[in-house]
Amino acid sequence: MTSRAWDLFVNVDGQHCRTICPLPHAQLNNIVVDRSTIEKWDQMSCQDRYVQIKDQLSAEERGLLASLLLHISGGDMENSSFWDMARSHALMTHDSKNFGDIWLRYKLRQGQTALAKRMFGEAVDYGLEYIFSFPVSSIIQRSDGIQVRGISGQTFRARKVVCTIPLNVLEDVQFIPPLSTTRREAIELGHVNQMSKIHVDVSNPELEGWNGMRFPGTLMYGYGDGILPNGNVHLVGFGKDEKGAFVPEENPKAAVDAFEQLHPMNIQRMIFHNWCTDPYSKGGPAWWRPGYMSKYQDELQSRHGDIFFASGDWAHGWRASIDGALEQGIMNAQTIAAELRPKGRLGQSRL
């Protein structure tokens, strides 16, 4: 039922988005579809599209589709972009049969912590340095270089700066000279994802391969995520934007109750980080508003003098994913390396 509802939702062109988003890594700049067509579809919200097709769905399909859209966007139906759903479908090679394999099944073998440790380890191997617990207050460009100043007053200087500050946090950093009016508008609006994500360990071995859904509900989806060394099962639960009513660190019992409403379980431990209340993220993975991509993506990706913006929050393809962060990092690193390379040091072609 979910696949049928999703396919109907995204199939605005009769080709499962192949004609409107044939190249998800080049949404605005490809030879297949003109920009004005993209801008038209980018104005549509999830609610707009849902209203167009809801009469073709059963009550169960409507509930499944609505909950899935809220689960993916972390916003509400009105402020969540339909285009981001179309782009996501294109990233699945335009086929919902790939949803599970691409979005859910495969992950980093040792987790994101291991990836981060290896990245910082590689930095040290190449003679680079890093500092933690250094909240940035301002980034100042002058004729003699750039100063990155922390709230502690400590300052670092550089010829080039790569800024990976999340979209919803950029408003807390002062840029001198100021950012463009268009970029400031984009930052003020921010993205809409205020999802809940909570992990629990349960002593229910039968839930190892369990997937559950309840809509409406504080947590709408729960997934079994394997057996731990002690024999307990690890589950992950997801909810939509409930930031006004559900702050799990302030009311852990409400989080336990939300899991037990999904399915009876014996919770042994609960673990989470609330990205929405964290002042250095202010939300989950970026999900954009209707009209946001076509108006602001180019500007968010552009440089500001010698400050380069490289975040997965405004990536071309896998926006809000590690892949998107790598995409933007690589693209900006190539530009910086070329500009800092001593003149006359270009390699000779052997073709």
From TrEMBL:
InterPro entries, per database record: Amino_oxidase, FAD/NAD-bd_sf, Flavin_MAO
Known catalytic reactions: a secondary aliphatic amine + O2 + H2O = a primary amine + an aldehyde + H2O2
Domain Amine oxidase: 15-336
Pfam families in the record: Amino_oxidase
UniProt cross-references to SUPFAM superfamilies, sorted A to Z: FAD/NAD(P)-binding domain
A single MF term (Gene Ontology): monoamine oxidase activity
EC numbers for this chain: 1.4.3.4
Lineage: superkingdom: Eukaryota
Family the UniProt entry places it in: Belongs to the flavin monoamine oxidase family.
Protein name as it appears in the record: monoamine oxidase
Protein species of origin: Colletotrichum noveboracense
